[in-house]
Amino acid sequence: MEFTLNPDRERMALTLVMGLLVNGRTVLEDFAWASGSEEFARALAEFGLVYEQHGHQLVLDGKGFQYPLPSMLPSGFAEDENLLLWTLSSKDPEHVFTIAEEPDEAGIAKVAALKESLLKYFKLNIEEDSPAKIVFRFAVEEPALKKDSLGNVPFAMRNRLLLRALVRGEYLSFEERSTVHDQWTKMLMYFGVPVRYEGRGMEQLSEFERRLMIAQGKKIERTQFTELSETRVITGREYYVPGDTTEATAFALLATIGNMPKENVVRLLNVDLNSTRAGALTCLKRMGANIENVTRREKFGDVYGDVEIYPLAAGKRLQGRRFSEDTIATAMDEFPLLAVAACYAEGETILRVPKEYRKEMRTKNEFLAENLRKTGVEVGVYDDGLVIRGMETIVNGSDFDGGDSAQAGLALSVLSLALQNDEPVANIEGVERTFPGIVEKLKQVLVAEKAESEG
CB-based contacts of 307: which residues, under 8 Å, 6+ apart? Predict the structure, then answer.
């Protein structure tokens, strides 16, 4: 059984921004819109991006760094997408933006939320500030760079820093302990932007420095160094946006826990295999899932390929594992899917959330745990994540509710399908908006499984 996934939404947004900054034409091959990406393209059209679909190609005509600024500050997207649009808008510190809403409770709340989000990433020169209206310019000065608890620059901030330096023709450098979601960095390199992106450690030290650090008992840790030099022009190239890793993880999970006959194989075509993004697939492999990368293409500056998932051998189970914050940082969108996998694993699985996500994840994890406990599985919710003790056989569990999280809804849909429930998960509409057609595709796996087993 072969499946083509929806394109990765994060990479699609970055690609459309790159298309704007290119002097000339960028062609996206084997193209399909990701969820919400056509609306994002319309927002970029306000900056001058011209796009047109021709069969299986999307042709982007960019404006380079001389793109015009929109009359209204764009918003209404996910925070990382808003941040890209706002960074483009911050090119000219003399340009005045106005955010205004109706002076009622809803309007005041919306303006306050947008202001809070802007001040999280930018310094602003505010000229008028009232509950329902802000008039401001983006300041030239940058906020102090803050690394997260893992010693990394959060990927949304890293993308913003690189984009801002790019459009302003500035030099930028920083060092991190490791990197999460580096698709934008690799995309810049592929399009010819002068970026140095390299690991640093013992080999960068002189012999004297190495001996001195060893004598002082200091640990020499490997770090990731990023440097961007002034860029005058970016030329167009062909590009391709691979399949969504979250959807791939859903297929891998269902094929593993859904009792597929041993002769069945699920093949996923052109999956995003960037190691800083696809951590969930690695987690499932560590738990014992039979997942194999059958093709690996190092093309367009990154890595993607076909993935095959085989059923577990007779008598085999997933195994509980402890996943650190570093690992989960590369799999935050797939966190609920890993929690469902843990329900089927032998022993205890610990999913530790990076410190920066813990406050927002605590409520989400309480809601997720409430659903998972309907199967009889023991689920403990803590400030730093989840502890789950799996069961050998799960036969009960229904009335699942994805709430307002498409990722949780997708994970619970996989669980419901594995349990062969007839009724859909509540609030499934959110799953369909974010991952169009995914539930019907997952059902095809089970239909094919049943047909083959009955034959």
Answer: 248, 252, 267, 268, 271, 273, 281, 291, 292, 293, 294
177 & 38 share domain? yes
Q: Are residues 342 and 437 in the same domain?
A: yes
pTM: 0.91
- Do 328 and 192 sit in the same domain of this protein? no
How would you write the pLDDT of the chain (455 residues) with one tens digit per residue?
Answer: 899 999 999 999 999 999 999 999 999 999 999 999 999 999 999 999 999 999 899 999 999 999 999 988 998 899 999 999 999 999 999 999 999 899 999 999 999 999 999 999 999 999 999 999 999 999 999 888 889 888 899 999 999 999 999 999 999 999 998 889 999 999 999 999 999 998 876 555 566 665 665 676 666 577 899 999 999 999 999 999 999 999 999 999 999 998 777 778 999 999 999 999 999 999 999 999 999 999 999 999 999 999 999 988 877 899 999 999 999 999 999 999 999 999 999 999 999 999 999 999 999 999 999 999 999 999 999 999 999 999 988 888 888 999 999 999 999 999 999 998 888 899 999 999 999 999 999 988 877 544 444 44
Asked whether residue 225 falls in the same domain as residue 274, the answer is: no
Strands (E), 7-96: 23-28, 50-54, 57-63
Co-location of 57 and 123 in the same domain: no
Tell me which residue range forms the domain holding 185: 8-93+146-241
* CB atoms near residue 340 (< 10 Å): 27
Residues near 102 by Cβ (< 8 Å), separated by ≥ 6? 132
184 lies in the same domain as 310: no
Q: 341 and 236 in one domain?
A: no
